[in-house]
Design goal:
Distance between the termini: 23 Å
Radius of gyration: 18 Å
CATH architecture: 2-Layer Sandwich
Number of strands: 14
Structural class: alpha+beta
Number of helices: 6
CATH topology: Nucleotidyltransferase, domain 5
Helix content: 10-25%
Strand content: 15-25%
Number of domains: 1
CATH class: Alpha Beta
Length: 310
């Protein structure tokens, strides 16, 4: 894999094959969720996969129905580079569910993330999305995409938009979803896996506490990520990673790794929150994730992507 694959990506024109489901999900009379344009649970044209809704229906009934609940030094960031690093001992990074993030609740439903978290110069004059009333709180947009999702030759890519960046280039980092997970398990190429990979990349990209932040808000349009991170994992860990229907939780390796990141950051003094945003508020990360999926080949093994300074 050439080094160029690891370089952070900006915005690129999208081809006609990467269209998304602009109409959003649609609920059938039987309660099943499908894509609006084509009526499919797994739709390659829309790059969507709502199959997880079948698994989580029972979990959601058990949990609170309220949707509005609220190294490391040396990890340096750059708009220009992401450098692959050898994986650390994966066994030490499996989470137990001890730390469960909460949802971020904006002051109003109509306020957009960049209005509440405008770009500001911070550590090493790098620009971040910093809360207008709290300089110790920042925001990162994440997104995942999978071309041919649920069809032959799927290609999954992830992206994070972590600051306004330079004048002509936003601070966007992206890449392909690896063929293997963080613990050596074989991983499929799917939109849900790409969404999780984007969050993991965002959490590990920098030593955020070293930049002076105590709160990190992940802004994503993925219900799978937000509900899973703040609610469903409670049931999964209690049921030994089985759904109430007796099935095995999908993408279990990434969920365990993500739980480990939540625990690691709590020990560092960083609180993580998730903000579910509309799809059209996430265009920059969305475009970069699709570009990464179409442009690069999937790495054979898991890689930690760590940002370096300018």
């Amino acid at each position: 894999m050439p080094l160029g694959w690891y370089l952070a990506q900006g915005l690129y024109p999208l081809g006609p094959s990467s269209s998304d489901d602009e109409e959003g999900p649609c609920e059938l009379p039987n309660g099943r969720i499908v894509c609006g344009p084509h009526g499919l649970v797994v739709c390659g044209k829309c790059c969507t996969d709502y199959s997880f809704m079948d698994e989580e229906e029972e979990e959601e009934e058990e949990e609170d129905k309220d949707e509005d609940v609220d190294d490391h030094f040396g990890r340096r960031s750059s708009v220009e580079e992401n450098i692959p690093q050898p994986p650390s001992d994966p066994e030490e990074r499996k989470g137990t569910g001890r730390v469960i993030p909460t949802r971020f609740i904006p002051p109003t439903d109509s306020i957009i993330p960049t209005e509440l978290f405008p770009g500001q110069r911070t550590y090493l004059n790098i620009t971040r999305f910093v809360h207008r009333n709290d300089p110790r709180a920042m925001l990162i947009f994440t997104d995942g995409a999978c071309l041919n999702n649920g069809q032959p030759d799927p290609r999954a890519g992830w992206a994070m938009f972590h600051g306004p960046g330079l004048e002509t280039k936003p601070a966007v980092s992206s890449g392909r979803v690896e063929k293997k997970g963080p613990f050596g398990d074989d991983g499929i190429q799917s939109s849900n896996r790409a969404e999780l990979r984007a969050v993991i990349a965002a959490l590990g990209f920098r030593h955020w506490v070293g930049e002076g932040f105590t709160t990190l808000v992940i802004a994503t349009d993925s219900e799978y990520v937000v509900e899973g991170s703040t609610k469903w994992v409670r049931t999964w860990t209690r049921n030994n990673w089985k759904t109430n229907a007796g099935g095995t939780v999908k993408n279990q390796d990434l969920w365990k790794f993500l739980l480990g990141e939540f625990e690691r950051w709590e020990e560092e003094g960083l609180t993580i929150k998730f903000w579910r945003i509309p799809r059209d508020w996430n265009n920059t990360a969305d475009a970069a994730a699709k570009e990464a999926a179409s442009r690069y080949e999937a790495p054979d093994r898991w890689t930690e992507v760590i940002g370096l300074p300018f």
